[in-house]
Amino acid sequence: MQAHRPGDPRKRVELLSKALSELADPPIKVMEVCGTHTVSIFRQGLRTLLPAKISLVSGPGCPVCVTSQGEIDAALSLASREDTTIATYGDMLRVPGTGTTLAEERSRGADVRVVTSADEALSLAMNDRTRSVVFLAVGFETTAPATASVVLDAWREGLDNFMVLDLHKSVPPALGALASDPDVNLDAFLLPGHVSVITGLATYRFLPERFGIACAVAGFEAEGIMMALVEVARQIRMKRPRVASLYSRAVRPQGNVAARNVMDRVFTLGDAPWRGLGVIPSSGFFLRKEFARFDAVERLGVAVKETPPPVGCRCGEVLKGLIDPPSCDLFGRSCTPAHPVGPCMVSTEGSCAAYYRFQKRGYLDWKD
C-alpha cells in the first residue's frame, strides 16, 4: 500500500514538475498507453507542467480506436441480418465503417442494442431464444475476462443463439511492436493502470530487457502520473530501465490470477489486425475450438477483410504517437465529435476527442 503523504497536493505536484525538469536531460519521449491516462492528463492540465524536454505522446490505449476498419465492417455486415440482434458497447455505435455506422443501421431498422456489460448481452440471448444475439466483444485485458465468463455461462447453459464477434486485443504485444519500430523511437512507457491490474508487471519486463525502454505503471490522479514520469526520467538518467509500479494499491506484481485463468480457459492468442499498427503476432484473443459454436465468424461466415481507413484520416499515426491530433488536416474541420471521420474522434478515450474536447474547454492550465 502507498503511504499517505500529508501536505498540499498542488505543492507536491509542482515539486515533481521541478524534479522532472532537472532529470529530463537529454530530451525523452514518453508514450502514455492508456486512453484514461490521456483524458486524465488533459483534464488536470498536466501537459502545462511538463518541461520542454519531455515529449508526451498518446498511444494505442483506446480499444475502440485500434479496432481495424475491416473489423468494423464485419460488425456492420452482421447488423444487416434480419434474424440477428447486435449487442454492443455505446462507443462502437458511431465508429464509421465503409459507408455507414451501427447507429445509421439501427435507424434503418437493424436490431442494435447498447449494453453496459457482457452479462447484459448474454441476458438478451437467454430472454429471447428465437433470435441470434451477437456480442461485439471489444477491449483489452480489462474486459476480456468478462467476455470469457459469459462464454462459459453460455456453454454451461447450452445456449445456441448466443455468439461473440471477438475483437479483444492484448496490450503487451502492441507495446513490443511500438518499441521495435524505429519511426516511433520511444524512450519510456507510462503503462496502463487498468490493464495492469489484470496482467501484473512481469508481462512488461521484455520492454526494458530487450529494448531498453523505461516503464512505470501509474494511477490516474495528478500526483501519481507525475511520480511515474519522474520515475521513468530517473531510470533513463541512471541508464537502468525497469518496470516500476506507482499504483501499488491496485496493481499487484502477479496481477489478477483468477481473471487470467478464465481468459486462458476460453481464449488462445493469435495474430490480429490493429488500426495503424497492422497485424501484430499473438495480440488477439480468439475463442478456443471447444467454444467455436459461440464464434460469430465461424457460425455465421462473416469475413474480416483488410480494408483501408477513411480517406484523409490519420488516426493510425495518432495511435502510434507519430503525430498529435491537430496535425491531421481533418481535425476540427471535417472531423469533429459531432461528425467523426475516424474512431479516435468517437470514443471518449480517443486522443482526437480528448484534444478537441479539452482544448475547446480551455483546459490548458493545471487543475488540482
Number of helices: 15
| Percentage of β-strand residues | 15-25%
Radius of gyration: 21 Å
What's the SSE pattern? Answer: HEHEHHEHEHEHEHEHHEHEHEEHHH
**Total DSSP E strands:** 11
CATH architecture annotation name of the largest domain = 3-Layer(aba) Sandwich
Could you walk me through the main structural features you see in this protein, from its secondary elements to its overall organization?
This protein is an alpha/beta fold and 368 residues long. Helices cover 38% and strands 16% of the residues. The protein has a 5-stranded parallel beta sheet with strand order 2-1-7-8-9. A 4-stranded parallel beta sheet has the order 4-3-5-6, with helices on both faces. It has a two-stranded antiparallel sheet with strand order 10-11. Helix 7 (144-157) links the parallel strand 5 (132-137) and strand 6 (162-166). The radius of gyration is 21 Å and the shape is globular.
Features:
368 residues, alpha/beta, Rossmann fold, 3 domains, 5-stranded parallel beta sheet, 4-stranded parallel beta sheet, 15 helices
